[in-house]
Structure formats: structure tokens, C-alpha cells
């Protein structure tokens, strides 16, 4: 235990600054930025330049935009901002996983995690403050939902991570630390559909962040009515937090299944797979000792996914204080995986990362609290 404490690094900015109340250009699509800047007399080609300064060079001050006239810089600064969220905490694990606790304008906080696995580097972003799903194996699910994040608040997670990893200094064509984005942080992305889709479109814009849709994954616990629109609107990779192979058990550990049972979920997944053609859907399956890890469960999983191009990600349960479950044994996880692989399913076992800083799958939980009497609107 002492080794973990000695090797784990933590940096903190206790005076995490709140964002300005000016309109933030970060989080607007390029078309929205163009419209927002028209009243200032900013031409379309200047809008493109401003966009590139924001997303290719990562500037946080309009005065750094050297090819924009000073009078235009001043008008921009009077009405808009391109600031980041504040950083409350910045922790680095012994395995180099990094977790930021970010503070937004209203004081609410979320967590964002970078997982280095060269040549890949994955950034796990949050879509809500808290979560409404109450999945029983997930620490985030023990925190009540405060609100949805805006597209700006989602995108700023990526920008803060790029700042911290010095990505802006990487030359064109060079290998950036962040190669993949996964919406697997706090919250249910499809309960914040419009802002998540807008954030994906900004990430994919070739003139800015230029992240391929094949490198972006949206994970859902099964919000069936939004799965088909997601395929039509952005068609990024889809991940399903499955975790059980029958409705009775899934009703218990993933309560949204009571509203959208497995049959409906599988039908929506089939539509998504047909739309994505060559790409497989990832099914996430957390391994819970004596709950969902039997040979019979594995065989039922094979049957459930028979008609869907699939990859099953087996996730060893990551403990958190007060957790009601234990992780399946290493032998049991491998035996479960062998049954899947013998049936032709890819079934990698996810290596837990960042456990010492509670950054592993299912461990995220911010310090934000639901304000009394505050109503939450889901879109």
C-alpha cells in the first residue's frame, strides 16, 4: 500500500477558475460559430481561421490569433470566450493513467480520464454531472444526477486533456497522445443526446479536431429510442453496457432494462450494426463473482449476440467503498472468455487502469452534489 502512495502523483489547483458568463465559442459547431460572428462583421474565411486557432492550435486567448486583426480580436473578446473549465484536481496513477476533476461555471465538477496504451491513447469523457441510472455495480451510479453537460463542457474535457498532455506542440502528421475518445465517463450519454451528438460532430470536423468517427465510441446502458437516431446522425462506434444475459438479472443490476428489455435492445443494436456495416458493436460485460459469470451465462451470451457483429469486452469488477459485489476470479474470467472465443466472438479481457486514483471502469464519482429542489431535464 505504501508503494502506491509513494508512486501516485497528484497536482491540485485549489483556486479552479470558473468560466466567464460570456458566450463560449467552444462547443458551437462551425456553422454556429459562423452565424454567431456575423453581427461582428467577421467573414466566413476568418471564421475558419478562428476555428483552426481553437482546435488545431489550442489557443485560449483571442489575442494569440495572429492572423486576425486586432480590432476584430477586441470585438471577439468583448462578447465571447474560448476558455477552458477550471481544474480542481489532476491525478496521475502509478500506471500513468491520468484523471482530471474539472470545475464548470456553476461550481459542478466531473471527471475525465486519459488511459495511455501506446500507440493508442484513450480519453474517457463524461456527459452528465452524476448519473440517473443507478446501476448497482457502478460507483458513479451512487451519485444522483445533477444535470446534463453542454457540448461546450464536453469538448472542453478534450481540450484540457490536450493542454495537459502538450498535444498542441505535436507537429502535423505526428503521433498525438490522444487517439480515441470514449463516452464512458460519468452519466448516460443518450440521456443527453443533443449535446453528445453536437460534441461528436465538433470532434469529427476535419478543419479542427479531426477525429475519425471510427475513433469515437458512445456507450449506453440501453436507451433504445436514441440508438437508431445515433446511427443516422453520427454513426460513431457503439458500446452497450450489457452485464447480464436475461431480463431478470439485468433488471436488477442495470435498472433501465425494466423500461427497455433485452429484445428491444438487441433489435436496435441490429439496426446500428446494419448501418455501420463492417464495424462491430462492443458489448461491455463486467464480471461479478457468482452473479453473471457462469458457463451457462457465457453460452447464453453467445446465443444473445448470434445475429449481431459483436465484440465482448470482459471487465474485471473494480471495487469501490461499499460495493455490494466481488470480482470474478482470474480463472473464471478466462474460462468465460474461452467459451465466447470458441463460438467465434472476440472477447478481450480489459486490463484495469488507474485503480489507485479511482479512475478505473465504474469507479468515477465527482464531488458535486444535487442541489435541493433542483429539477433535472433529460433530452
Pick out its properties.
11 helices, alpha/beta, DNA polymerase, domain 1, TIM Barrel, 14 strands, elongated, 10-stranded mixed beta sheet
Second rung of CATH, namely the architecture of the largest domain = Alpha-Beta Barrel
Per CATH, the class of the largest domain reads Alpha Beta
Question: Average pLDDT, to the nearest integer?
Answer: 87
Share in helix = 25-40%
Note the beta-strand portion. 15-25%
What distance lies between the first and last C-alpha atoms, to the nearest angstrom? 43 Å
Number of strands: 14
CATH homologous superfamily heading of the largest domain? Aldolase class I
Name the poorly predicted regions: 1-19, 359-379
**Backbone shape:** elongated
- Give a quick account of the main beta sheet: strands, pairing sense, barrel closure: 10 strands, mixed
Number of helices: 11
C-alpha-based Rg, rounded: 21 Å
Describe this structure as you would to a colleague.
By secondary structure, this protein is of the alpha/beta class. The protein has two domains: 23-81, Orthogonal Bundle (DNA polymerase, domain 1), CATH 1.10.150; 86-357, Alpha-Beta Barrel (TIM Barrel), CATH 3.20.20. 31% of the residues lie in helices and 18% in strands. A ten-stranded mixed beta sheet has the order 1-4-5-6-7-10-11-12-13-14. Helix 5 crosses helix 6, helix 7 packs parallel to helix 9 (262-276) and helix 10 (295-304) runs parallel beside helix 11. The chain is elongated, with a radius of gyration of 21 Å.
